[in-house]
Design goal:
alpha/beta; Arginase, Chain A; 8-stranded parallel β-sheet; 12 helices; about 10% strand
């Protein structure tokens, strides 16, 4: 088994927990890692615990006043007006004890992955606990307190002087990362997401292209609701290849939200496991073509934690470690299914693939495909 790839994990990542019926549930990390272990696809020597991000790390992106507000919220000493001003205590981002520490380990995990790759010790690193791409300089947003993606990218720019291509395939626009680097020419952001007409955060239009020295380093492809695999993969293949060829990065950072799947309860897309097999394959190819293999991958959205996230994120690690042959049988390990079926509120899948009759035919399929092609053309025409 290849040791060129690193998996970031410890139980500290499970402390990022909003509680109750909140859709963001880090138990998906436990389910994914257990699935990989049942496949004999990961060993303890692959796993490294995240370090805790320092305040100096966090200040690479976040304002001191925001960090102080998160600290106060962590110990229950923030008033409602101040919390609201910083995006804390909302329905999306409720306050929970020790949230500063929990969030710092999320950021530290992505920084651990970055340094492992940029130092040359590893080719690839995967931190599924990360991917909190909605956090802003002075405000929490969309389940995200600190923005580990943005902090890590700024660290790469400052510490290693590298050009970073950030590829975000979460169904929600990667707004926090885009705005953090909107005027930065050494960072290129590419986000493929469901149109903001229907979905949070409502941004990510094709005309958001960067500004100043960063003009033409932001790319957005807002696809139509009910987009299926065929169109989604056409957009992804074309955009990633053309943007990578245009920007010629030194390292790629991929945000791997898996909420474009049909089963996801928060979005309106109709993806299947087929897209989650191809996403990491192409990322892997691009990393070796342009970046000498340097690839840092993080998690992100994904709210069907039983049927979708473990399978999709396992495929990411299997691709990264050249072990995709382990899923050639198409069947998930019986051991994993038996362990979790009583706890799952839905029947667990038995296969790595999805049934073609998972959902009814989409009546607007041809219209959606054509609309997405026009959107892709608008997004990419300046570099063609």
């Amino acid at each position: 088994m290849s040791k060129k790839s690193l998996f970031i994990f410890s139980d500290k990542l499970l402390q990022y927990k909003f509680g109750g019926q909140h859709p963001f549930n880090q138990f998906r990390l436990t389910l994914t890692l257990d699935l990989l272990k049942c496949l004999d696809a990961i060993e303890e020597t692959h796993i490294m615990a995240p370090r805790k991000a320092t305040e100096e790390d966090l200040r690479l992106i976040h304002s001191p006043s925001f960090i102080d507000a998160v600290k106060l919220a962590s110990i229950g000493q923030i008033d409602a007006e101040m919390a609201e001003a910083y995006g804390l205590g909302t329905e999306d981002t409720p306050i929970f004890p020790n949230m500063h520490e929990a969030s710092s380990y999320i950021v530290g995990g992505t920084l651990t992955a970055v340094d492992a790759v940029m130092s040359g010790k590893y080719k690839h690193a995967l931190h599924l606990g990360g991917g909190l791409h909605h956090g802003f300089k002075g405000k929490a947003s969309g389940f995200c307190i600190y923005n580990d993606c943005a902090v890590a990218i700024q660290h790469i720019v400052n510490q290693y002087g590298a050009k970073v291509l950030y590829i975000d395939t979460d169904a929600h626009h990667g707004d926090g990362v885009q705005w953090a680097f909107y005027e930065e020419p050494s960072v290129c952001t590419l986000s493929i997401h469901e149109t903001g007409r229907y979905l949070f955060p409502g941004t990510g239009d094709v005309l958001e292209r960067g500004q100043g020295k960063g003009y033409q380093t932001a790319f957005n492809i807002p696809i139509d609701a009910f987009t299926e695999d065929e169109s989604w993969l056409e957009i992804y293949e074309t955009a990633v290849k053309e943007v990578a060829n245009y920007f010629k990065p030194d390292v790629i950072v991929t945000q791997n939200g898996v909420d474009a799947h049909f089963y996801d309860p928060l979005t309106h897309l109709c993806g299947t496991m087929d897209i989650y097999k191809r996403i990491p394959q192409l990322a892997h190819e691009i990393a070796h073509q342009y970046c000498q293999g340097r690839w840092i991958a993080v998690g992100g959205g994904g709210y069907d934690i039983w049927r979708v996230v473990p399978r999709a994120w396992s495929l990411l690690w299997l691709e990264m470690t050249d072990q995709l042959e382990k899923v050639n049988s198409a069947s998930l390990p019986d051991q994993w299914i038996e362990r979790w079926k009583e706890k799952s509120p839905v029947p667990l899948p038995s296969s790595w693939t999805d049934s073609r009759d998972m959902y009814a035919p989409i009546p607007r399929k041809s219209e959606i495909i054509e609309k997405n092609r026009r959107t892709l053309e608008k997004a990419l025409y300046p570099i063609r």
